[in-house]
Amino acid sequence: MCTGKCARCVGLSLITLSLVCIVANALLLVPNGETSWTNTNHLSLQVWLMGGFIGGGLMMLRSVFSSAFGVLGAIYCLSVSGVGLRNGPRCLMNGKWGYHFEDTAGAYLVNRTLWDRCEAPPRVVPWNVTLFSLLVAASCLEIVLCGIQLVNGTIGVFCGDCRKKQDSTH
């Protein structure tokens, strides 16, 4: 595949992934699809850091022009989402709001019986686990694709684009 076609394919993939990240981050702001939790201090810090919106989304859209910038955005999204996944959501448990799974080092992810201990927001643990996992996967793909884009761009600079120029007689 020539560098121009590769850049187009990777670019379209990155745009799609960035939109997935933006939507996933927007959904994290409304646990269980309910907006009543957004107006209070009950969402985790990782949700408010907007890793999916800023890193996996806006910075990735910008990567069409600069793949290095896209890699930084994807790393930001991966870092914030990974910490959000590891620490778990901020929720109400035994009358106290906090990061109740923070000390489990992510072990709560495989012990679903712990998930029901969060009293509010309802079903916040599967909501966060699903969306942060999606952001982790998307940002990992973005890192790979931006890396390909960097290599492809470098090859294009030194070797030129292999696309054939249109014959000017037609």
UniProtKB/TrEMBL annotation:
One GO CC term, this protein: plasma membrane
UniProt keyword terms in alphabetical order: Membrane, Transmembrane, Transmembrane helix
Membrane-crossing residue ranges in chain numbering: 12-31, 43-61, 68-85, 131-158
A Pfam family the protein falls into: L6_membrane
Membrane topology: Multi-pass membrane protein
Molecular function as annotated in GO: arginine binding
A biological-process GO annotation: regulation of G1/S transition of mitotic cell cycle
Top-level division of the source organism's lineage: Eukaryota
InterPro entries (alphabetical): L6_membrane (IPR008661)
Compartment(s) of residence: Membrane
Family the UniProt entry places it in: Belongs to the L6 tetraspanin family.
Entry protein name: Transmembrane 4 L six family member 5
Organism: Rhinopithecus bieti (Black snub-nosed monkey)
Lineage of producing organism: Eukaryota, Metazoa, Chordata, Craniata, Vertebrata
Gene responsible for this protein: TM4SF5
